[in-house]
Amino acid sequence: MDAAFTAEQDEIRRTLRELLVKRCGPGEVRSAVRTAHGYDGALWRQLAQDLGLPGLALAQEYGGVGCGPVELAVACEETGRALLPSPLLATAALAAPLIAALGTEAQRTALLPRIAAGELTATLAAPGGSLSTALGLTGDTTGGAWAGGGRAGGVQARPGPEGWRLYGEAARVLDGHSAGLLLVAAHAGGFPRSRTLLFLVRADTATGLARTRQTSLDETRPLARVELRDTAAELLGADDTVDAAGPAGALAAVGRTAAAVLAAEAVGAAASTLDRTVEYVKAREQFGRAIGSFQAVKHRLADLYVRVQAARSAAYYAAWDPTAGGLALAQALETLRITTAEAVQLHGGIGFTWEHEAHLYFKRAAADELLFGPVHRLRDHAAEQAGLFTQDAQGHGQGQAQGHGYGPRMGVAV
User: Fold this and answer.
1) DSSP code per residue over 104-152
2) Residues in domain Acyl-CoA dehydrogenase/oxidase C-terminal (predicted)?
3) How many domains does the chain have?
4) Which of 48, 61, 328, 348 could crosslink 263 through cysteines, CB 3.0-4.6 Å?
5) How confident is residue 308, by pLDDT bands cut at 50, 70 and 90?
6) Do 266 and 231 share a structural domain?
7) Domain of 265?
8) How many angstroms separate the CA atoms of 252 and 232, rounded?
9) Mean per-residue pLDDT for 313-337?
10) Is 28 domain-assigned?
11) Are 210 and 141 in contact (CB under 8 A)?
12) Distance CA 377, CA 380 (A)
C-alpha cells in the first residue's frame, strides 16, 4: 500500500480548499443554513459543474469522474474543514452508491448522470430513527428491524395495479426536506412474510408526500420528517433480482464506505478547529505574554495534534479498506468531540458565545455523534463483527478462558 497522496488527489484538495476559503466562511455558513434548502444553491452548482464533486466516485459511464472512496474522502475532509452545508454526503456517499449497486440499468442510466451533474440531489430515508443502524455501523441490517419493523411500524409498501404505494413516515432524514429523490426503506409482503426493500420516490411528481424540516442541533446538517400517504414509488432494482435478504448487504457495504468518508469529514472539522485555536492562543495575551507560550496550553494542543493526525491516518486507511470504516469513524468522532470541547475552553469567554465560530464546530461534533454514533456503539459493533468477545464452551469470554485479561485478537483489554 502506497500511503502517499497522488498528484490528482492533492489537486482536488488544493482546488477545493481555495474555493471554500473564498465562498464558505463562518458568515456564509450561517447565511446558507437559513435558506429554504439549507445550503447555498449557487455554490453547490459550482462544486458540481466545475469540480464534479457529486460524481467524484461515480463511474464515467454514468457521467461521473471515475475516482473512488479515497478521492471522495479527500474532498469531504475539505468540506468538513469549512463545515460546508451541502447535500454532498447524502447524495454522493449514501444514495448514489445504493442506486449504482441495486438499481436496474435503466434506473442507473436515468438517475446517476443527473446526480453527477448536480441536477438531482438524493438521500436515504430509513425509518426507525437510526441511520447508523440502517447502514450496519451500530447494528445488524439483516431482518429489517432497523427499518421500524412490525405491522404498523416504519413504512409499509403495497403493490397495486399501477405500481407500489407507500404508507408511513421516517424521521431524522438527512436533507430530506430538499432532496429531489428519496430512497425509502419500506416493509413489503405483509406481516407474516415482511421483508425490507428500497423504493425510489421522486419528490417533484409524488403525491401524498409531506416533508417537514426539523429543528436540528447542527444547522449545517438539516434533518426532516418524511410522511408518505398512499405515495407512488418505484422499486429500486427489478422484482426478479431482489433476493430474500433485500438491500441489507448493499446497505452494509455502503455504510462502511460512508463511514470512511464521514471520518475524513470529521477529521477536517477537527483540524480546522485546532488551527483556529492555535492562531487564537498565539494572539491572546495574559499576564503580558501570549497564552500559547504557557506550558500547560502547549501540552493540551500537542495532545490534540496527535489525536487529529491519528484519526486522519485511520480515516484514509478506512477509505482504502472500508472494513475498518466503523472503527475509523469512532476514532474521528471522538477526536472531533474532544478537540472542539478543548477549543471552547482555550478560547475562554469568547468561545462560549453564539457569535463565535467555535460553537459551530462544537455542535457539529455533538450532532454527528448523535446521528452516526455513539462512539461506544460503533466500537462495540466492530468488536462483535470481528469476534473479539466470543464465548467458549463454558460460557466464558475467550480471552478470559485463555487465562489473561485480553481478547483473542489485537491485544484488546476486556
Assistant:
1) -HHHHHHHHHHHHTTS--EEEE-TTS-HHHHTTSSS--TTSGGGT-SSS
2) 260-385
3) 3
4) 328
5) very high
6) no
7) 250-389
8) 26
9) 96
10) yes
11) no
12) 5
